[in-house]
Amino acid sequence: MDDSQVESAQVSSQDHGCRGRIPNACTACRTHKIKCGGSQPCSSCAKHGRECLYAVLKPRGRRKKLHREVSSPSGVSTPAKRPTRTLQAAGELSDSSANAHRRPGPLATKRQQRLRCGVGVAQSGTGGYQFYGPASNFAFLQCIYQRIHRNAPNHQDRPGAMCVWGFDKFAFPAAGTAAQDHRRAPVCVPKEMGDCFIKTYFQVAHPQYPFLLRSEIQQAWASFWNPPREGHQDSVGKTARNIVLMVLAIGAHMSSLHKDKDAATMSDWAAYLASCARLDDLSFGDVSLQNVHLLLLKSIFAMQLMRPNDCYLYVGHAAVNALALGMGRAQVANGNRTGMYRLRVTFYTLYAVERLVALFYGRPSCLRDDSIDATLPEDLPENHGGDTICDMSYVRAKAQLARIADRINTNLYFCTPVAADLTTIVRIVRECDAEMDIILQSLPPFLHFFDTHMAPSTESWQEVQRTHLGLAYYHIRTLMHRPSLVWLSMCASKAEALSEARAMGVQDLQESIDVAMDAAKALIALALDACATRAPEMRQDSGVAYNIIAACLTLLYDVLEGPSRTAAGNAASTFEAVQDGINCLDYMKHHGPHFGKVTLSSRIVGVAKDAFRHIFDSEASNNNAGGDNEASASAPVTDSTSSQRLVQNYTEKTSHISDLDSLLGQFPWLA
């Protein structure tokens, strides 16, 4: 809502204060049918931490009557709200007239549509098909591939980026995997190994998703070693058993490695344990808190396996179950009882995962803020006891970031009427930037991921939360400003891109590009610092990998046109950041699906090599195209200005080739 509308609502509220009512309530209060104070934000929205929006007031009555009231003498008492509405409508009319002069042409409209193009991934032989929106890594990979090969988005003669670089293996499971899991004979997990897996889960995964109680998991794990009882096992006991199996599977995947626990062995244990926690038809119809926990654990495990489609589906089912339970409603979850508190912790953990997964994978969210009024979980007393995390600052911050992520996903990357107006997009980005800065100001010191000189915490869970909050923050900022980088690549030159953006009311295109590049570099630096120094227990946490891939792809996209057109201004620093990202991926020995000896880092290296070859070929073609100019430069030239221009062009081309040679010497893995 713009400032004029807020001011109008406040003025009207003051004028009618004597009558005890306001002329306009915010959208959230009107939806929930509660009294609104008329302020910005109102007390209810401020209490629940949601966005406070007011609908535009429409004038009532006939135009003639309205005109007479506006033009009445000063001695006559007239309500102040009617002239305000008239002036507001006139302002909106003038704004729309001004925007009409900045209406983009057909070429600019086509470019804006390409900014919101996703990618479809098909599996030959099975008929499987998945779609990923423009914010996803898969769609951005295809965008890089099209830029390298100079083909249109709908070009069908060339295999896509997913097949060439091997990323299609992450979309679909290997053929026959499910059948092999069902045919496996039951295996007894050694108790000591299971204890180790549970310890790893609560050391690495639980700080990110603090919705389970360690005492309950250990009690259920101990029951595995009791003799079986006669009679049919009820659904509650079956769900509790499956939850323990998923905790063991995630812990196995995240376990630190040594000579007796290599990556292949841990991956096999994780796959087996997860296959034992099978979901039948009744599982999706079981509306219970335990089933929400189970589905959320399934989504977390899919995230560890780099299976974006499975992750999105499982967390979506968990969100639907949570809505059926009413976990997002104040009358269900608000209260001082332990059960209500746990409902809020679970719901807002699920809320953050679902919203961020929807943005990062380019798909819509099934959660709507209009139907959520449960308060964010507060901190517990420090004497609560046990291994319970009492400080819920991380959960609250992730929930606030998730709310911003949904706004970005809806208004920037989906084909909505808002996304068609570039100036509106710029305004939304600025508002989201300001909201994210406010979130940083409210963080406790142990979550200050932006302070690179801060000493490591003695509590490992604080380092895990600090790292993952920073990864989500920088990833969102990268996606907020990455469309500016893509827009620049669609134009013939940087000057044309800046000029066309200014014509449509965007004055800070280059600044937005710089923000995207800085956020991508900061993300990689944060992940490398955590895995190498601050939290080495996170080295096998594959949830970090997806964020690193997004940052590396953003940096590589910027240098595709070579040193002559890089927006970063320094291609060497860009490749250095990509190299740090590859080193961080090398720490993770069993991230994602394995096919032979091809690792995730080697796939990123393949993309970087193709990007560097494209840079070299582009510079070579530019030099060949300038051969005529060089020949003419050798001929006698009478115009001194023309002679200086030719010498300058030749010098620039020579320096660009020299820059490429130095890059190859500095980063030999690009060869």
From TrEMBL:
SUPFAM superfamilies linked: Zn2/Cys6 DNA-binding domain (SSF57701)
Keywords: DNA-binding, Metal-binding, Nucleus, Transcription, Transcription regulation
Listed InterPro entries: Fungal_SecMet_Regulators (IPR051127), XnlR_reg_dom (IPR007219), Zn2-C6_fun-type_DNA-bd_sf (IPR036864), Zn2Cys6_DnaBD (IPR001138)
Stored Pfam families: Fungal_trans, Zn_clus
Domain Zn(2)-C6 fungal-type: 25-54
Molecular function in Gene Ontology: DNA binding; DNA-binding transcription factor activity, RNA polymerase II-specific; zinc ion binding
Entry annotated with the keyword Nucleus: yes
Residues in coiled coil: none
Single GO BP term: DNA-templated transcription
Signal peptide per UniProt: none
Origin superkingdom: Eukaryota
Renumbered residue ranges of the record's region Disordered: 63-112, 623-645
Keyword Transit peptide applies: no
PANTHER family assigned to the protein according to its UniProt record, in alphabetical order: REGULATORY PROTEIN GAL4
Protein name stated in the entry: Zn(2)-C6 fungal-type domain-containing protein
Organism, scientific name: Pestalotiopsis fici (strain W106-1 / CGMCC3.15140)
Lineage of origin: Eukaryota, Fungi, Dikarya, Ascomycota, Pezizomycotina
